[in-house]
């Protein structure tokens, strides 16, 4: 959970900086920041999948209630 929080900060930061670079007409920098932003989004999705699988695994391991 903490790791996803960090990813969300990164997504917010890179998104804001990419927007600023676009506003300033710094297109090459905007593209670089945009690439990093996409990587952060992909990492966030992977972490979500890991968390989901972990929850499902733990649920499957729980004894059934009577
Ligand atoms: Fe990250």
From TrEMBL:
It comes from the Bacteria. InterPro entries: DUF892_YciF-like, Ferritin-like, Ferritin-like_SF, YciF. This is Uncharacterized protein. The lineage of its organism: Bacteria, Pseudomonadati, Bacteroidota, Chitinophagia, Chitinophagales.
């Amino acid at each position: 959970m903490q790791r996803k929080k960090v990813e969300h900060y990164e997504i917010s930061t890179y998104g804001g900086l990419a927007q600023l670079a676009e506003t300033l007409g710094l297109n090459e920098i905007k593209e670089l920041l945009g690439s990093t932003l996409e990587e952060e989004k992909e990492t966030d999705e992977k972490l979500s999948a890991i968390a989901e699988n972990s929850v499902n695994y733990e649920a499957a391991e729980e004894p059934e209630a009577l």
